[in-house]
C-alpha cells in the first residue's frame, strides 16, 4: 500500500509548496499554534465546557479530600484507643471506650467509602457529559466544514480525535484532574509544614523540589512532543485501517494483502516506537521522582541524627519530620503518572481544537437572500477556480476554471463536454457550493450562491455525483435522502425509481427496504448509479446537476432513462456532464469546456459541424485507422515487463505529438470501416 | 455468514456481536474465547512480565527499606554518634539510604520501560492479527460487517486493552502477593483475626460476582455503542459530499447525537457500577478493621490478647486492604478489556468463505485458459445470479462481455478473481480449479481492474506501483505512458510524487480510471479482467487506451466488460449476458451480422455515435 501521512509527522498532510494562503499550511500553522500554547492556556479552552459543572467538580474535590482525611484519621483513633481506653480500660474494666473507638472507626470507614462513592458520582456525570458534548459538537462542525477540508484531512485523523482523544479527556476529567488537584494540594501543604516545623531539615527537603521542578518542566516539553506524535500516528494508523477496508477489492484483486499488512505493520511499529519513547521519557521522570525525595530524606536523616546528637532538635521532632515526609512522598511519586495523563489530555485538547478552530471557509452569509419564486436560471459569470494545493507557477499552475461564462435558461438542459480532467466536475460542484469560486460568480435566478444559506441553495439544487456515494441504508432511505418533507411518500419513491429505471429495487430480497451494503456495494455498478440518479430526482430540485450520470449503464437502459428524463426534466434546469454522444442527446444545448473556459455553446449538430475541439472530444467516427506498427505488440509487452522504455517513449511520442495524431489512430474507426466494407 | 467454532447459537464469530445480554452459556463461551486470546497474546511476553514483576518487587522493597533505615538510625546510630562521636554507623545508614533511593528509582524506571515494551508488543501483535484477518476475510463478510466496525475493533476496542495493560498488570500481581503474604502472616500471629479477615472475603467475593455479571453486560453495551458511533461517523465522513448536497446535516446530528448519547450512557452506567464496586470494597475493608478491632479489643479485655499483638494485628488487617482499591480499578479495566476482546476475538475466529487450499496445486506460469463447468452462483441463497454457466476461454483470447446492467457481468468477473466461490460447478484456470490454487499464484495469474476505481492516499507512483511492488520509476512511467496517463501526471504539482488524497480525490474520475488501469498494466497477468475500466474516460482517452490494450492483450487472456461497445472492436469473441445467462456467443462480426440481441445493441450504440 502506498505510504501515508505517517511519513509526515508534523502535520496531517504534506504540503507541496509552503505557501501561507494554502489551507493545508493553515492547518499546520494552527496545529503549531495549539502546540505553542502553555498547558494551562491550552486547557483553558475547556473552561466553557467545564464551567456549568464546576460546582459538581469542586464538590468532588472536597469529597476526595474528605475521604483522604477520613482515611488518615483512622490510625489516629487506633493510636488513641491503644494508648487510652484499651490500656486504662483494662485496668478499670471499662469497655465503653472500646465501643466508642470501634464506633468511631466504623463511622470513619463508612464516611471514607461514602465520600469515595460521592466523589465518583459527582465527577462521573460531568465527565461523560463533557465528552459527549465535545463529541457531538465536533461532528456538527465537521459536517459543516466544506468538502475541501475533508479532501485534505484523512478520515482516521478525524475519527481518532472524536474517539480516542475525547476518551482520554474524559478519563482525565474523571481521575487525572482530581488527582492533580489533590496531589498538588497535599504536596504544597506538606512541604509547607515540613519547612515550617522542620527547620533545616525542611529546607533540605525543599531543596529537592528544585531539581524536581526543573525535571518536570523538561519532561513536560519532551513528553508533549512525543505524545503529540503518538496520537497523530494513532490517527494515521486508523486511516490505514479504514483504507485497507474501503480498498479491499483492489487489494484482493492484486493480491496485495500481504504488502498492505507489511506497510501497516511498519506503521504500527512506528507507533510502538513512539510509545516506547514516551515510556522512556516517563521512566526517567519516574526514576527521579522516586529517587530525589528519598535522597533528600537520606541526607535529612544524617543531618537530623547529627542535630539530635548535638541536641538541636528532639528525637520526637525528627520522627515527626519523617512521618510527614512519608505522607508527602507518595503523591510526589504519583505526580509522574498524573503529569503524563495531563499532558496526554492536553495533546487531545490541542488536537481537538485544531479541527474545531478551523473556520468554515464557506460560511452562510450574515444576511441571506432567498429565491422566493425559483425559475431555475443558472448562470456562471467569469468563474475562476483553483484548488487550494495548486502550485503558483510551473506545470498545473493555471486555474482549473479560468473565466467560465455560461447561462442555463430556466428549464433547459445543457450538456457540459470536455476532455478528462478539463474541470467539468469541478464546475458542477460549484453549483451546490460544495466548492467556492475563487473569482467570478455562480447565480441561481440572479442570486449569487454565496448570498444564500447553503441550506436554501441546496434545496434548490440536486446533484448526482460521478461516483454514486450511497449509504448502507435501505434503498428507500437512500433515494429519499434529500427529499423535501412533503415528498417522501411511496408514490414519490416510486416515481423517482421509475424515472431512473431503478425498478430492480423491487426485486431485491426485501424490496425497497433492502439494505444495500456499505457504499451500496451489494449492488451492481449500474444499479448504484441509478439509485444515485433517483436520489437526485427525488430531491425535487429546480436545478439539477448530473455528473456523467449514465456512464455505467447499457445502451438500452440509457435510452429508457433518457426518454423518461426528457419529460421529467422539462421544468428543471439541468447541467449534465457528458462524455458520450448518447448522453449529449438529452441536452438542448451543449457547452464545450476547454482550457478552463467555455469555448462554444450551441446545439449538438451545429457544434459538430463547426467546432473542431468538440468533434475531437465527442466523435468516434472520424479519422482512419493506422494499424499499429508490427513491432508495437512486442513493445507493449516489454512495457508491461518494464523493459525498453526508450523505445516506447519514442513510439508513443511520435504517435501522440499532435491531437490529430491521437485522433488518427483509432482502432474502432478501422473496425467500423472494415465492417462497413463487408456489408 | 459462516463461522466454524462451535458454540451456543449467537456466539460464533461476529454473528450476534451486538447482543449484550447473553445467556449464561453464551456468555461463558465468548468470555472464554476472549480470555484465551488474552493468554495467547501474553504468552510470548512471559519473560518481560517476570522481569517487570521482579522490578516492581525490588522497587517496593527499596522504598519500604526507608522507614526501616530511619528506625535503625534513630535506635542505634544516634547513640553511637552522641556517645562515641562515631560517625561511621550513621554515614553507613545514610549511604544505605542513598543506595535504596537509587535502587528504587532505577528499578521503577526499568519497570516502566519493561512493562511498556510488553504492552506495546502485545498491542502491535494484536493490531497485526486483526489487520491480517481483515485482509483474509472474504468480501461477503466485509459487505455486511462494514469498515466502521473493523475500525472500531482496531481503535476503540484496542484502547480498552491498552488501558488494562497500562493499568499495571504486574503491580497488581505484586499487590495480590502482598495481600496473600499479609493474610498468611496474620493467620500465623492470630488465627482468630485471620478468621475475621477470611469472613470479610465472603461479602467481597459476592460484591465482585455482582460487579462481574453486571459490568460484563454494561461493558458489552459500551463496546457495541462505541462501534455504532464509529460506524456512523466513518460513513458520514466518507459520504460527506452527499451529506452536504442533500442537506442531511441536521438529521445526521440527531442520529449521531443519539448514538453518542447511547455511548455516553453505557459508559456512565459502567462507570457508575464501578463507582459502587470500588467504594464497596473499601467499605468492606474498613468494616473489617472495625470488627477486628472490636473482636481483638474484647479479647484484650478478657485477657486473651496482648495489646501489642492487637496493634500488630490491626496493622496487618489495614495493610491487607491497602491495595484493594487498586485491585478494584484493575478488575474494572479487566472487565472493560474483556468485553473488547470478546468482539476482537469474535472477528478473529471468523473464517473466510473463500479459503486458501490446504495443499495448493502450483501454477508457476499460467497460460490463461479459463473454463467454467456448470458454474452456479448466488449472493443470497435461493436467488441465483448466475444459473448454471459453461464457458471455455482458450488461452490468449480477448473476450468482451456485454449485457444489461445488473445482468451478472461483474459477478462473473469476481468469480474469476475468486472474490467469491462458486455455489456449484467449478471454475478452472489452465485445468486447475481456482479453489486449488494458492492465493499468490492466482493473484499473479489473474488481475482485475474493478468497476470502482479505488486509489489509496499516497503518491501517484505508489498507487501505480501497487500492480508490481518494487517497480522502478521507469516502469511506473512506462505503464502510465502506455495508458496515456503520463501527460496529466506530469502536470500535477509534484508529478509522480503528488499525493492523490484519500480515494484519489485529488484527480478527476477519468484520471482515476487511468491510474487504476496503469496499475493493471504494470501487473502483467496472464488473465486480465477489465470491468468497465474506461467508462469515465473521454473518447480520445478511450481510444488511446484501446490502442494500448490492443497490443497489451495480443497474447493474453482478457475479459473486458463494457457498455461502450467500442471495446468490442479489439475482442476476438463477444459474450452477451442476460439475467446471468450467456445468450449469445460468437465473434464480433458474426454477432453483428446476425439478428440477435447483440446486433440490436450494436446498432443502437452505433446510432448513438457521431
Ligand atoms: N480536490 C482536488 N484538488 C486538486 N486538484 C484537483 C482536485 N480535484 C480535481 N483536481 C484537478 O482538477 C482538474 C479537473 O478535475 P475534474 O474532476 O473537474 O475533471 P473532469 O472534467 O470532471 O474530468 P473527468 O471527465 O475525468 O471526470 C483535474 O486536472 C484534476 O487533476
Ligand atoms: N455483493 C452482492 N450482494 C448481493 N447481491 C449482489 C452483490 N453484487 C451484485 N449483486 C446483485 O447481483 C446482480 C448482478 O450484479 P453484477 O454486479 O454482476 O451486475 P453487472 O452485470 O456487473 O451490472 P452493471 O453493468 O450494472 O455493473 C445484481 O442484481 C446485483 O444486485
Ligand atoms: Mg468528472
Ligand atoms: Mg458491473
Structural class of chain A: alpha/beta
Q: How many separate domains make up the residues of chain A?
A: 3
- The end-to-end distance of chain B, rounded to whole angstroms, is 49 Å
Q: Which bin fits the share of residues in helices of chain A?
A: 55-70%
> What Rg of chain A, in angstroms, do the CA atoms define?
36 Å
Keywords:
heterodimer; A: 679 residues; alpha/beta; Rossmann fold; 6-stranded mixed sheet; disordered N terminus; B: 610 residues; ABC transporter transmembrane region fold; 2 domains; 4-stranded antiparallel sheet; elongated; binds adenosine-5'-triphosphate; binds magnesium ion; membrane (chain A); transmembrane (chain A); ABC transporter (chain A)
Structural description of this entry:
The complex is a heterodimer of chains A (679) and B (610). With 679 residues, chain A is α/β, with parallel strands linked by helices. Chain A folds into three domains: 26-356, ABC transporter transmembrane region fold (Up-down Bundle); 378-615, P-loop containing nucleotide triphosphate hydrolases (Rossmann fold, 3-Layer(aba) Sandwich), CATH 3.40.50; 630-678, no CATH class. Helix content of chain A is 63%, strand content 8%. Chain A has 24 helices and ten strands. A six-stranded mixed sheet of chain A has the order 6-7-8-3-9-10, sandwiched between helices. In chain A, helix 5 runs antiparallel to helix 7 (155-198), helix 8 (200-246) runs parallel beside helix 11 and helix 15 (490-499) crosses helix 16 (525-538). The longest helix of chain A has 54 residues, at 257-310. The radius of gyration of chain A is 36 Å and the shape is elongated. Chain B is an alpha/beta fold and 610 residues long. Chain B has two domains: 12-351, ABC transporter transmembrane region fold (Up-down Bundle), CATH 1.20.1560.10; 370-608, Rossmann fold (3-Layer(aba) Sandwich), CATH 3.40.50. Chain B has 20 helices and ten strands. In chain B, strand 1 and strand 2 (383-393) form a beta hairpin. The relative contact order of chain B is 0.08. Residues 1-10 of chain B have low confidence and may be disordered. At the A-B interface, helix 4, helix 5, helix 6, helix 7 and helix 8 of A face helix 2, helix 3, helix 4, helix 5 and helix 7 of B. The structure holds adenosine-5'-triphosphate (2 copies) and magnesium ion (2 copies). One magnesium ion (MG) is lined by residues 424-425, 466, 547 of chain A.
Amino acid at each position: 500500500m502506498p505510504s501515508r501521512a505517517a511519513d509526515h509527522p508534523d502535520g496531517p498532510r504534506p504540503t507541496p509548496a509552503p505557501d501561507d494562503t494554502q489551507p493545508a499550511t493553515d492547518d499546520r500553522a494552527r496545529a503549531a499554534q495549539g502546540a505553542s500554547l502553555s498547558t494551562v492556556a491550552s486547557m483553558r479552552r475547556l473552561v466553557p465546557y467545564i464551567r456549568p459543572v464546576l460546582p459538581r467538580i469542586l464538590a468532588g474535590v472536597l469529597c476526595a479530600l474528605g475521604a483522604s482525611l477520613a482515611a488518615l484519621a483512622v490510625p489516629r483513633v487506633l493510636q488513641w484507643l491503644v494508648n487510652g481506653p484499651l490500656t486504662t480500660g483494662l485496668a478499670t474494666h471499662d469497655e465503653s471506650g472500646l465501643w466508642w473507638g470501634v464506633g468511631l472507626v466504623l463511622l470513619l470507614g463508612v464516611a471514607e467509602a461514602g465520600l469515595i462513592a460521592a466523589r465518583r458520582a459527582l465527577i462521573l456525570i460531568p465527565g461523560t457529559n463533557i465528552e459527549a458534548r465535545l463529541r457531538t459538537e465536533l461532528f456538527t462542525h465537521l459536517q459543516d466544514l466544506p468538502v475541501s477540508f475533508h479532501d485534505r484531512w484523512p478520515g482516521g485523523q478525524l475519527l481518532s480525535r472524536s474517539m480516542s482523544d475525547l476518551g482520554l479527556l474524559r478519563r482525565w476529567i474523571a481521575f487525572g484532574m482530581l488527582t492533580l488537584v489533590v496531589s498538588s494540594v497535599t504536596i504544597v501543604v506538606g512541604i509547607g509544614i515540613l519547612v515550617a516545623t522542620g527547620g533545616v531539615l525542611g529546607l533540605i527537603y525543599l531543596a529537592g523540589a528544585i531539581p524536581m521542578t526543573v525535571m518536570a518542566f523538561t519532561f513536560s516539553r519532551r513528553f508533549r512532543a512525543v505524545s503529540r506524535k503518538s496520537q497523530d500516528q494513532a490517527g494515521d494508523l486508523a486511516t490505514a485501517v479504514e483504507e485497507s477496508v474501503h480498498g479491499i477489492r483492489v487489494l484482493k484483486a492484486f493480491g496485495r494483502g500481504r504488502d498492505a499488512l507489511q506497510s501497516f505493520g511498519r506503521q504500527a511499529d512506528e507507533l510502538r516506537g513512539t510509545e516506547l519513547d514516551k515510556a522512556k521519557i516517563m521512566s526517567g521522570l519516574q526514576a527521579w521522582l522516586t529517587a530525589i525525595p528519598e535522597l533528600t530524606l537520606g541526607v535529612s536523616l544524617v543531618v537530623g541524627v547529627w542535630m539530635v546528637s548535638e541536641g538541636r532538635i528532639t528525637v520526637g521532632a525528627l520522627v515527626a519530620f519523617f512521618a510527614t515526609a512519608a505522607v508527602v512522598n507518595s503523591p510526589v511519586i504519583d505526580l509522574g503518572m498524573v503529569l503524563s495523563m495531563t499532558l496526554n489530555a492536553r495533546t487531545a485538547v490541542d488536537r481537538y481544537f485544531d479541527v474545531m478552530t478551523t473556520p468554515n471557509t464557506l460560511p452562510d452569509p450574515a444576511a441571506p437572500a432567498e429565491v422566493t419564486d425559483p425559475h431555475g436560471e443558472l448562470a456562471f459569470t467569469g468563474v475562476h477556480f483553483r484548488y487550494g494545493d495548486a502550485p503558483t507557477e510551473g506545470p498545473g499552475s493555471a486555474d482549473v476554471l479560468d473565466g467560465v461564462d455560461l447561462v442555463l435558461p430556466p428549464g433547459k438542459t445543457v450538456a457540459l463536454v470536455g476532455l478528462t480532467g478539463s474541470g467539468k466536475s469541478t464546475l458542477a460542484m460549484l453549483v451546490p457550493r460544495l466548492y467556492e469560486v475563487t473569482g467570478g460568480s455562480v447565480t441561481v435566478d440572479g442570486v449569487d450562491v454565496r448570498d444564500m444559506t447553503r441550506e436554501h441553495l441546496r434545496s434548490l439544487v440536486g446533484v448526482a455525483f460521478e461516483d454514486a456515494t450511497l449509504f448502507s441504508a435501505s434503498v428507500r432511505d437512500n433515494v429519499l435522502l434529500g427529499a423535501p418533507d412533503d415528498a417522501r411518500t411511496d408514490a414519490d419513491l416510486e416515481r423517482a425509481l421509475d424515472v431512473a429505471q431503478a425498478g430492480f429495487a423491487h426485486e431485491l430480497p426485501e424490496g425497497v427496504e433492502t439494505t444495500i451494503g456499505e457504499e451500496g456495494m451489494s449492488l451492481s455498478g449500474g444499479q448504484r448509479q441509478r439509485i444515485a440518479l433517483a436520489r437526485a430526482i427525488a430531491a425535487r430540485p429546480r436545478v439539477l446537476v448530473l455528473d456523467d450520470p449514465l456512464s455505467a449503464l447499457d445502451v438500452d437502459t440509457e435510452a429508457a432513462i433518457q426518454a423518461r428524463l426528457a419529460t421529467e426534466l422539462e421544468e428543471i434546469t439541468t447541467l449534465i456532464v457528458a462524455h458520450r454522444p448518447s448522453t449529449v442527446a438529452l441536452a438542448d444545448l451543449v457547452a464545450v469546456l476547454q482550457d478552463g473556459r467555455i469555448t462554444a455553446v450551441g446545439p449538438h449538430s451545429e457544434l459538430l459541424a463547426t467546432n473542431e475541439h468538440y468533434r475531437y472530444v465527442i466523435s468516434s467516427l472520424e479519422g482512419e485507422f493506422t494499424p499499429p506498427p508490427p513491432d508495437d505488440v512486442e513493445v507493449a509487452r516489454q512495457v508491461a515487463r518494464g523493459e525498453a522504455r526508450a523505445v516506447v517513449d519514442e513510439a508513443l511520442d511520435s504517435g501522440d505529438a499532435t491531437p490529430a495524431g491521437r485522433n488518427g489512430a483509432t482502432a474502432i474507426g478501422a473496425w467500423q470501416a472494415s465492417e462497413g466494407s463487408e456489408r | 455468514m459462516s463461522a466454524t467454532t462451535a458454540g451456543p447459537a449467537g456466539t460464533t464469530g461476529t454473528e450476534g456481536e451486538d447482543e449484550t445480554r447473553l445467556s449464561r452459556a453464551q456468555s461463558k463461551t465468548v468470555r472464554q474465547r476472549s480470555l484465551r486470546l488474552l493468554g495467547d497474546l501474553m504468552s510470548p511476553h512471559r519473560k518481560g512480565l517476570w522481569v517487570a514483576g521482579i522490578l516492581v518487587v525490588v522497587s517496593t522493597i527499596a522504598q519500604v527499606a526507608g522507614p526501616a533505615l530511619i528506625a535503625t538510625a534513630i535506635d542505634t546510630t544516634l547513640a553511637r554518634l552522641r556517645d562515641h562521636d562515631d560517625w561511621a554507623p550513621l554515614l553507613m545508614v545514610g549511604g544505605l539510604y542513598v543506595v535504596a533511593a537509587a535502587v528504587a528509582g532505577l528499578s521503577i524506571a526499568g519497570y516502566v520501560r519493561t512493562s511498556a515494551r510488553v504492552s506495546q508488543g502485545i498491542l502491535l501483535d494484536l493490531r497485526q492479527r486483526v489487520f491480517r484477518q481483515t485482509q483474509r476475510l472474504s468480501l461477503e463478510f466485509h459487505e455486511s460487517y462494514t469498515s466502521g466496525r473493523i475500525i472500531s475493533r482496531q481503535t476503540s476496542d484496542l484502547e480498552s486493552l491498552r488501558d488494562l495493560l497500562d493499568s499495571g498488570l504486574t503491580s497488581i500481581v505484586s499487590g495480590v502477593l502482598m495481600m496473600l503474604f499479609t493474610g498468611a502472616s496474620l493467620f500465623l500471629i492470630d488465627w482468630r483475626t485471620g478468621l475475621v479477615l477470611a469472613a470479610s472475603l465472603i461479602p467481597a467475593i459476592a460484591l465482585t460476582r455482582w460487579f462481574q455479571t453486571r459490568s460484563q453486560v454494561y461493558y458489552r453495551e459500551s463496546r457495541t455503542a462505541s462501534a455504532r458511533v464509529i460506524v456512523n461517523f466513518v460513513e458520514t465522513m466518507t459520504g460527506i459530499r452527499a451529506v452536504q448536497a442533500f442537506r442531511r446535516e441536521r438529521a445526521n446530528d440527531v442520529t449521531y447525537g443519539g448514538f453518542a448519547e447511547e455511548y455516553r450512557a453505557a459508559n456512565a452506567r459502567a462507570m457508575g457500577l464501578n463507582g459502587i464496586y470500588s467504594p464497596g470494597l473499601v467499605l468492606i475493608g474498613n468494616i473489617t478493621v472495625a470488627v477486628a478491632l472490636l473482636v481483638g479489643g474484647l479479647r484484650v479485655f478478657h485477657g486473651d490478647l496482648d495489646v501489642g499483638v492487637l496493634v500488630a494485628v490491626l496493622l496487618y488487617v489495614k495493610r491487607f486492604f491497602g491495595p484493594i482499591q487498586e485491585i478494584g480499578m484493575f478488575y474494572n479495566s479487566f472487565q472493560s478489556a474483556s468485553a473488547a476482546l470478546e468482539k476482537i476475538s469474535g472477528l478473529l475466529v471468523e473464517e473466510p468463505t473463500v479459503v486458501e487450499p490446504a495443499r495448493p496445486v502450483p501454477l508457476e506460469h499460467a497460460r490463461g485458459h479459463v473454463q467454467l463447468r456448470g458454474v452456479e452462483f448466488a449472493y443470497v441463497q435461493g436467488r441465483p445470479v448466475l444459473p448454471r454457466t459453461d464457458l471455455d476461454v482458450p488461452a490468449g483470447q480477448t473476450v468482451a462481455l456485454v449485457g444489461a446492467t445488473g445482468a451478472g457481468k461483474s459477478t462473473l468477473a469476481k468469480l474469476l478473481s475468486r472474490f467469491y466461490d462458486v455455489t456449484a460447478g467449478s471454475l478452472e484456470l489452465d485445468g486447475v480449479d481456482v479453489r486449488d490454487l494458492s492465493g499468490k499464484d492466482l493473484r499473479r495469474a489473474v488481475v482485475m481492474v474493478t468497476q470502482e476505481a479505488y486509489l489509496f492516499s499516497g503518491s501517484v507512483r505508489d498507487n501505480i506501483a501497487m500492480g508490481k511492488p518494487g517497480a522502478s520509476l521507469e516502469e511506473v512511467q512506462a505503464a502510465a505512458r502506455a495508458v496515456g496517463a503520463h501527460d496529466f501526471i506530469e502536470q500535477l504539482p509534484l508529478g509522480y510524487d503528488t499525493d492523490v488524497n484519500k480515494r484519489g480525490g485529488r484527480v478527476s474520475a477519468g484520471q482515476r480510471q487511468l491510474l487504476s488501469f496503469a496499475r493493471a498494466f504494470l501487473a502483467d497477468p496472464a488473465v486480465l479482467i477489465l470491468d468497465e475500466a474506461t467508462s469515465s474516460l473521454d473518447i480520445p482517452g478511450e481510444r488511446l487506451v484501446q490502442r494500448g490494450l490492443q497490443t497489451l492483450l495480443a497474447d493474453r487472456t482478457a475479459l473486458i466488460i463494457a457498455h461502450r461497445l467500442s471495446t468490442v472492436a479489439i475482442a476476438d469473441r463477444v459474450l452477451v449476458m442476460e439475467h446471468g445467462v450467456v445468450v449469445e456467443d460468437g465473434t464480433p462480426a458474426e454477432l453483428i451480422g446476425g439478428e440477435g440481441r447483440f446486433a440490436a445493441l450494436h446498432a443502437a450504440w452505433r446510432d448513438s455515435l457521431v
